[in-house]
């Protein structure tokens, strides 16, 4: 907003100044981050994208017989049909896993136990039609999408409510207040990752699911509360700016965690 106001003072029109401000600040930052990701980032847990099939788990298929135990003497007396039935039975057996707690148990990725399947039209259709495939996207829309909506429209809402009614409150002031939601990411993003790791070590995937639901619930309740608070104030009374920013900051924090 400060760049925009500076460009306006230089004589640029609103249309041009707004677009130049985006090229001046966000674009170089995004390009810089993209270059760092290209240099230091990994395409895949195995390293390069071309090496994605070289990890041990990728070499497995659902039809692989993972039973490497030596044949017993009784196996020699079995017919081929009985041996085949025994192998099928071993595939169906379930292994009981007992969690052994330690101070800092290692986090195992699903890549370590993943089974590689060839992508066909049938498997692609099964993936696309599975609700779990769309769950991460839906969660992203309701969290990061919420934050983008807040960053985009909150300045307009604050300007509409307080311009000319609070001393010195103008478009630039509204932009500064709204930028708080974006700057919260500096703390909430890494802190959210840390909390997620702690929850996963202690309670596993189930714990992370409940933590995600709790964050979404708090975000939703805060947003609804903020909406009711704004709707409950009619002219000439003004909503308290501190209350508005506080309630929606809580919503932004839990959408970013």
TrEMBL record:
It is a multi-pass membrane protein. It is found in: Membrane. Signal peptide: none annotated. Residues 51-99 are annotated as: Disordered. Residues 62-79 have a biased composition (Acidic residues). InterPro entries: MFS_trans_sf, NO3_transporter. It comes from the Eukaryota. The chain crosses the membrane at residues 20-40, 210-231. Its main location: membrane. Residues 80-96 have a biased composition (Basic and acidic residues). GO terms for molecular function: nitrate transmembrane transporter activity. The keyword Transmembrane helix applies. Keywords: Membrane, Transmembrane, Transmembrane helix. SUPFAM superfamilies: MFS general substrate transporter. GO terms for cellular component: membrane. Gene3D superfamilies: MFS general substrate transporter like domains (1.20.1250.20). The keyword Nuclease does not apply. This is Putative high affinity nitrate transporter. It comes from Coprinellus radians (Coprophilous mushroom). The gene is nrt2.
